[in-house]
Amino acid sequence: MSMNPFCEIALEEALRVKESGAASEVVIVSMGNEKCTEVLRTGLAMGADRGIHVATERPLYPLAVAKLLQALVRKEEPGLLLLGKQAIDDDCNQTGQMVAGFLNWPQGTFASKVKVDKSENCVHVEREIDGGLESLRLQLPAVITTDLRLNQPRYATLPNIMKAKKKPIAKVTPEELQVEITEDFDILEVVEPDKRKAGVMLSSVDELLDKLKNEAHVL
Amino acid sequence: MVSFARGFCRLKFTKAPWSFEVHCSVGSELFVRHKQISAFTSVVRCHGEYSKLLSCYSLLTHGQRRHNSEIPEVDRVKKDPRYDRTLRDARFSKLSNQDLVEFKKIVGDSSVLTEAFELEAANRDWLGKYVGTSQALLRPRTTQQVSEILSYCNTRRLAVVPQGGNTGLVGGSVPVFDEVILSLGAMDNIISFDEGNGILVCEAGCILEKLDSFLAEKGYMMPLDFGAKGSCQIGGNISTNAGGIHLLRYGSLRANILGLEIVLANGQVIDSLRSLRKDNTGYDMKQIFIGAEGTLGVVTKVSILTPARLSSRNVVFLGCKYFTDCQRALKEARSNLGEILSAFEFLDRKALDMVLSHSDGLRDPLPDSKHSFYLLVETTGSCFNHDREKLDNFLEICMDKGVVADGVVAQDNQQFRSFWQLREGITEALSKAGAVYKYDLSIPVPYMYNIVENLQHRLGDLAVVMGYGHLGDGNLHLNISAPRYDSKIFSLIEPFVYEWTASHKGSVSAEHGLGFMKADAIYYSKSPEMVQWMTRFKQMFDCNGILNPYKVLPGSSFKEGSRYRNVSNSS
């Protein structure tokens, strides 16, 4: 199991915020079955301080994840919530926006630049939009979702991997967080797109013209 | 000045700043060799009469150029001085129009390439260091066609260069002069695959990467892997006994080839294409062709044993301070990773800098400090947890013992690929950086890095010397990077590198082969008696010497006159 690339970028940004002195601790969260602990170990090896594993075997969709995050935020009271803009398995791009709604926090999505200003208790976010770059100033606490160009995540180096073994991973269940996971929709069907047909080798320009005319009908 | 010698007429004309020697044999073609800057090689037909020779001379002094696939000779000489002391063997015939007609009858019109632009890539090796002047490239599709071509060439005494992917690094896959190129690229069928035992039977022109992709779907993999896999062909791999990054785990091709189909120089097809794991009936004749670099026969079909493709792969990138630490890490890897160890590569700081500066998108995995040496260790196994546990244990031991200063574990496929690209991209980066002198040496591991340091000391500021390679196999790729090819640099490198290697009882060619580049260097690693036996084998399998001449064995090992039998006497 490997970390969702956008989440990796979010973690890297969190580490940089901490290294700049604006934060005291980086907590990472993963939700799902036992395999999540591997991902958490990687995150701890990159430099996070502690991990939380929300253990459940049920399939999780953005609404449920947002509710669980809301419950965790109430418990942990972080100053900044960083998420990847979307997960590469379902491509939903909904969790960050929903949790900001639940918490009633400001949100800066698709961030390509993040700068925390402790003195003003705000964070400056630059977003990539169709027309160019949008600059926002958000009051803390806030939700930020990260886009590809925000940073390049560091590799987990050996000394940190060793240290990570001793860092704590707390386990908690949805029941303990008092969140009910409901399944609001059924996936009816997932179909692969049509396979690209193999090319045909032709032996002469005459044959090419013939095919273009009579088979592809483009001439 | 004119001299006559047994049917040869030798004329020497000197006209400043040009001087050239003209060799001709009465009754056949005139071959002219120019030896000055911006000169061209020409072939002029002549019937051997003195007056006609003089008229040829006047044509030549006007710089008539017959073939536009030629290159100025001095460029070749600068890149490899061996060109300077290699003469085209006049006993080989010249390609005639009738030959082309016959070839077309055998393989069809579209499989005979004669245009200069078609031949350009095939005449030049991957490094751009070795360039020939072949005028014909043949692309047979069946073993029968290969047999007919060779039989014809043997009768006509036309020299032939068998060519696969043309990715060799010692000039073994391109013509030295005008040899006919026999390309195996059109013979790329996969014949059969035994899914229970992993035995693959295919034609020699199959590209290594394509075979690996085919096997991936069946849960298997090719036992060899290296940077050229996207272009190299299995026939060429066998003819050079290619090594690569997984030799440490799966053994050499000599161990994995179960059978071969070979065509000899006279066209005879040797069918040794069994797919049996064990067969002790008589002498294992196919072994002599593995690594013979196309000089004993042309490989047309292969039967190869392939290992299962295992699910769990890990790669770590480690930084070490001293070369002795690298050796200690190897020992720890063998003891603690054991059967899951699948690759153990090393590169020095200069090699890492080289690949980082010439590749987009690659970054230093350990940017916080510059280490002197880097190791790339790969494990392959069937159980993720088991392998990860062993890997963690190995890393902890290395850190505790101070063997490794720092390191990174690849977390996902992308990191895995980018770590490997750091090692596999060095060769390409060196080509982009300018001129490169490449040496591929087997040296006892404790002394291996000494040659890099000694040579850098010798060269001073003239060039940058770096070392990388298959540390697990004791194989160093010594590379010297310079802004341009320079005879002064070359004279400082050779024969020093060869002599140093010989004195440490190493091999002057661990896996690249001898090709054209090292055909005179064999004595640094093999005794004269051994070379004599090789020469006897060559004479036995290829009495006219048409297969890949001027390569592998030194010309001096063939006694004058005993190399060839007269064509008219051949049986």
From TrEMBL, chain A:
Gene Ontology biological-process entries: amino acid catabolic process; fatty acid beta-oxidation using acyl-CoA dehydrogenase
Database matches in InterPro entries: ET-Flavoprotein_bsu_CS, ETF_a/b_N, ETF_b, ETF_beta_N, Rossmann-like_a/b/a_fold
Superkingdom of the organism of origin: Eukaryota
Keyword set, alphabetical order: Electron transport, Mitochondrion, Transport
GO cellular component: mitochondrial matrix
Domain Electron transfer flavoprotein alpha/beta-subunit N-terminal: 1-181
A GO term for molecular function: electron transfer activity
Subcellular location: Mitochondrion matrix
Family to which this protein belongs: Belongs to the ETF beta-subunit/FixA family.
Subunit annotation: Heterodimer of an alpha and a beta subunit.
Function as written in the Swiss-Prot or TrEMBL entry: The electron transfer flavoprotein serves as a specific electron acceptor for several dehydrogenases, including five acyl-CoA dehydrogenases, glutaryl-CoA and sarcosine dehydrogenase. It transfers the electrons to the main mitochondrial respiratory chain via ETF-ubiquinone oxidoreductase (ETF dehydrogenase).
Identification of the protein by name: Electron transfer flavoprotein subunit beta
Native source organism of the sequence: Ceratopteris richardii (Triangle waterfern)
TrEMBL record, chain B:
InterPro entries per record: FAD-bd_oxidored_4_C, FAD-bd_PCMH, FAD-bd_PCMH-like_sf, FAD-bd_PCMH_sub1, FAD-bd_PCMH_sub2, FAD-linked_Oxase-like_C, FAD-oxidored/transferase_4, Oxid_FAD_bind_N
Similarity section: Belongs to the FAD-binding oxidoreductase/transferase type 4 family.
Span of domain FAD-binding PCMH-type: 130-309
Gene3D superfamilies documented for this protein: 3.30.465.10, 3.30.70.2190, 3.30.70.2740, Uridine Diphospho-n-acetylenolpyruvylglucosamine Reductase, domain 2, Vanillyl-alcohol Oxidase, Chain A, domain 4
Reaction it catalyzes: (R)-2-hydroxyglutarate + A = 2-oxoglutarate + AH2
PROSITE patterns: FAD_PCMH
Gene source species: Ceratopteris richardii
Gene Ontology molecular functions: (R)-2-hydroxyglutarate dehydrogenase activity; FAD binding
Descriptive protein name: D-2-hydroxyglutarate dehydrogenase
Superkingdom classification of source: Eukaryota
Pfam family, one: FAD-oxidase_C
EC number: 1.1.99.39
Membrane-spanning parts: none
Entry GO CC: mitochondrion
